[in-house]
Amino acid sequence: MPDAVSVIRAKRDGHELTRAQIDWVVDGFTRGTVADEQMSALAMAILLRGMTRTETSAWTTAMIASGSRMDFTDLPRPTVDKHSTGGVGDKITLPLAPLVAACGLGVPQLAGRGLGYTGGTLDKLEAIPGWSAQVSSARMRELVADPAVGAVICAAGADLAPADKKLYALRDVTGTVESIPLIASSIMSKKIAEGTGSLLLDVKVGSGAFMQKYDDARELAETMVEIGTDASLPTRAMITRMDVPLGSTAGNGLEVAESVEVLAGGGPADVVELTIASAREMLALAGVEDVDPAQRLADGHAMDHWRAMIAAQGGDPDAALPKARHTELVRATESGVLTTLDALAVGIAAWRLGAGRARQGDAVQSAAGVVMHAKPGEAVQAGDALFTLHTDTPESIASALEALTGAWSVSEGYSPPPLIIERIG
Ligand code: URA
User: Which domain-ending residue is among 251, 278, 312?
Assistant: First the structure.
């Protein structure tokens, strides 16, 4: 029978943990017989020593086994989901889920809330009057099976990978978040327990992303694809740029409005490109080759599914979105072609304006955020509008302006790097 100290020592000394040791320690931690300080020490040993592919997959399996697992295999349509590691202005899930549903697949998506400068999908959708993130498992199945809806975006129940919730809270306060095997197994345990039939991962890299270095993003993407493969979940990953915000808005209600523009056939080119490319990958993962997502977006089918999805969760798709009580225009002070627009700076500005939260449980403002009037590659003249800041708390404007100082630059020319850098799996 393993004991916590011998498991910690084994990892501390660089040994590979056995499946029995992993199952025992994760189960004990979930039930409270392995103490928080013991799990913290083990997390630190894992951060310093790493885990092999076999250990990482076993760790993920143990995380899943700590709670319940959903199953959609009996539904009349294949299911597929997308997970993004998060970034500034990343609203892709909002147009993507109804688009993929409009292509005939089911999208059972358990999403999260934002912390710090990256927004959360649930915070964005909650800007829609009446919309609720709480959907029972039974209702989720009904909506995914309904050909007129097909997509659900909702909060995970407390019984989905509870060991991960408990461990993430510990990692957050013990300097052990930055372990790639622990990040990968944390994300994948929730996605596998969610019961999706296949999975697309959007691993972001750049100043506004969790992974700032390309090699780390690649390692994370590869580790998650391996976990999916080992769990028989068809999984692919895209590594995409997050040095510039996605689209022209960062902030909850502002991003909903921009997503609706995309569903109506307009919207910023980068959001449209990534939405359609993601939909293509998801259709390919599910083995559907005869449907063109660009067509389903253009012909209004995706918008029909958006409206049905929002209404099914209590939202009014026609309701006006909240408007901020205060706005502040920021103008360009130089002329030229915009060459940089730093995602981190824009994310911090939106957060300071009230779009994000500093601690779990804090409220967010639905109307707060930043509208970007120019993106890299566009010409600006001194005096042109660059940003509009939106907030209900005008005292936050000075600190948001401070975050944006030095966040942009102009030059004479610009050749845009690709948005999708690499595909894995
Ligand atoms: N997101 C997760 O869900 N888990 C991590 O460990 C890090 C980011």
Answer: 312
Residue 29 covered by a domain: yes
| Arithmetic mean of pLDDT over the chain | 96
* CATH (domain of 22): 1.20.970.10
Kindly write down the DSSP assignment for every residue of 331-369, as one continuous string.
E-SS-EEEEEE-HHHHHHHHIIIIIS-SSTT----SS-E
Residue 308 has which token pair?
A: 């049905």
Residue 320 in any domain: the answer is: no
Ligand 1 within 6 A of CB of 187 = yes
∠ at Cα 276 (275, 282), nearest 5°? 90
Q: With 90 as the cut, is the pLDDT of residue 348 above it? A: yes
Confidence at residue 5, expressed as pLDDT on a 0 to 100 scale = 98
265-284 per-position pLDDT tens digit: 999 999 999 999 999 999 99
Asked if the structure places residue 21 within a domain, the reply is yes
Enclosing domain of residue 278? 81-312
Ligand 1 atom with the smallest distance to the CA of 182 is: 6
- Residue 56, in any domain of the structure: no
- Say yes or no to pLDDT of 1 above 80: no
Counting atoms of ligand 1 from 1, which one is nearest the CA of 210? 8
Residue 377 sits in a domain whose CATH number is 3.90.1170.30
DSSP 8-state class, residue 67: S
The CATH number given to whatever domain includes residue 157 is 3.40.1030.10
pTM assigned to the model:
0.97
- Catalytically annotated residue among 83, 280, 305, 390: 83
Last residue of a domain, one of 260, 286, 312: 312
Q: Are residues 267 and 376 in the same domain?
A: no
Please give the distance, rounded to the nearest whole angstrom, from the Cα atom of residue 373 to the centre of ligand 1: 32
Q: What local confidence, expressed as pLDDT, does residue 416 receive?
A: 85
CA dihedral angle for residue 125, residue 130, residue 135, residue 138, rounded to 10 degrees? -130
Give residue-wise pLDDT tens across range 200-221.
Answer: 999 999 999 999 999 999 999 9
The tokens for 14 are 């660089």
Q: How far is the CA of 394 from the centre of ligand 1 (A)?
A: 33
DSSP structural state of residue 204: E
